[in-house]
Structures
1.
Amino acid sequence: MNCTSLLKPVGVFALCLASSGLCAQADEYNIVQNGGFEEVEKEPTTFDQISRATGWNNVTIGLSEVFSKGATAKTVGIPDNFYGTMEPAEGVRYAGFFAWKDDQRWNFDGDPEDPFKPGWNAYSEYPWAELPITLKEGRTYEVRFRVALAGNSDRAVAGIGVFLSPLKLEYHNRSFLQERPQVVEETILEERGKWVEVKGSFVADGDERYLVIGTFPTAIFETKRIIEGVDNQYAYYFLDDVFLIETNTVEGN
């Protein structure tokens, strides 16, 4: 599996698969604050509450979740919740987002040969975090995070990645973002219930301040149906252990 840097060509970087914890090295400084979603303003009580995780929010009106072992509602509990059963990659909490959802609806008054009508249609959710510093021009950064396809998902996707933005993005829709990510996963991540690490490097322009995670069809997009029979038409991924570090190299060196 390959993870490619797209903002400035710096080669192809390997995707590492991890089923166990990956700890930061002692000399690493994680620029992302609360990358493990461990700090919350309040325990989550229902869907759409990623904003309760300190420092996190949503780019669009497709709202993401935070899950917790301390949640009173089973819908957002750990290990069992609405989307499946999953232990955190580390700590006692993680987030989750729709990487793809085809929100079609039955059209009872329409053509019987075409029984669906568009709803929101296909969309992705995009959790974001503001960085405490602006990235440095010409410096190389490594970003990594872990996702796990939720057990109740009937679809899986390629195209999950990271966009580092100079501006705070706010869109009043549920559409796919048209921004081009610096790092993207080209392989369909289809194994349910297993943490997989997505990892890649890029050279900063020097004005990036916001980290956005989601599906980026501007780079690559592919879906796969992974069940037979009834299809719930979504690919939901749990998210944990988000890291962004400077690798102490300068472009051209």
2.
Amino acid sequence: MDLFKSKYLMSKFVIEGLYRREVMEYPEEALREAITNAVIHRDYIGPAPIQIKIFNDRIWFWNEGRLPAGITIESLKVSHRSSPRNKLIADVFFKGDLIETWGRGTIKMVEVCRDADLPEPEFREESNGFSVWFYKDIYTRSYLREMGLNERQIRAMMFAKERGSITVSDFADIAPGVTKRTLQRDLSELTEKDLMTAVGERKARKYVLSYPPP
């Protein structure tokens, strides 16, 4: 964590009452949980070390060893049983107060990212191991493209990010030649995905980002 703070990640200072608090660009608790999770669940028979890669808009943690039988990617964001691969290491972490509650690590990562107005972390099984992806900003072209948005919708998201909101008329200006019905359908799909929120009555309706960009 000290290396993250001193070398790789940016921090900002916020004022709370009379005190100044340092805030990392990714929640410190979430990163600590990801490291703890990797150490406890790594398959130490395999040759690959735990790996961390830091990109401009995301950070990636990976450890060798897939999920235990009966635990799925989907179950990691809700209450689920704890099944540490390395029970002795897990016990040491628990007694050292690095684990608060069994089976809560991935849920906590999700919660603290939401509280920081950041995208939920993405959990994957890849390269014969398990990875956690943290994203700095949900409103990046690459991330939105991975979510399956079409290029018009991405253009609308970028417009709203820059201007604070977008209307159907604004959308028509940046997507010439597209019918109003298609544009309205694009915006409706964005609200259904909880990426945008419709504000106001139908004639004066505008669409704003559901999450404030950092």
3.
Amino acid sequence: MTKIKIWGLALTFLWSQSLLAEVIDVTIHYVGPTEGSVWLGMQQGMSEANLQGEFLGQTYTIKPVTLDELADLDEVTALLLASDAETIVAVAETEKFNNVPVFNLMSDEDNLRAACLPNLLNISISQQMKQDALAQWLAKHPGSKAHVQSWHESFRKFAASQLNSRFTKASGIIMDDDSWAGWAAVKLISDTVARIQSDDATKMLNYLRNDIAFDGQKGAGATFRQTGQLRQLVLLIENNKIMAEAPLRGVKGGLDSLGLLSCK
């Protein structure tokens, strides 16, 4: 039997099993702009999540809400926030969201990581991660004018080129740091629901914190630190070209050489 036939049978089995199981309708609440890069990244994530969900009996919806509307909600599965650090902390510390995954999509404030809030998951790279990556680069290339990004349109490894192509085809713009973060947050949620077969917020948060091994097209097996920061490689960019990836080869600690490592 050919590999294509075997894969086809496997998909048929998954689809038939999903018909027998109860459909999981996942609603993701979001506070932030409903246009621009981060929003388009989330839309890309939603498209891919629902495509996968067709075989697994899962559907995904993003519901934009204001802070006032958020305060009136009784039940929330996951929260995506594209806002300032003060707002993110205020939402994450709200008692009724204590066991809800709260994703920081855009803020690089170090104090969000240092706060070590148990439900806060930081997708964007922190100021300290940027500083550490740049220090590694400048130690070998003094005088360089490079800066640090979490994503770039010419990134090709780990199937990144395919993600860049899919996003640009769908949105008409290039994928940048914010759109990658929006896409990654939705994928983290859909990967978690697919694995635990539940949209229970507490179960999702536990899995994300302790068991996720995320493939965000930046290398497989990314996990969250105690600080809530997603471990990930970053890119050193000069004249809009990728000069290197950090952590640089040979740097002690690998991914944990970038940013705040643990809670005090």
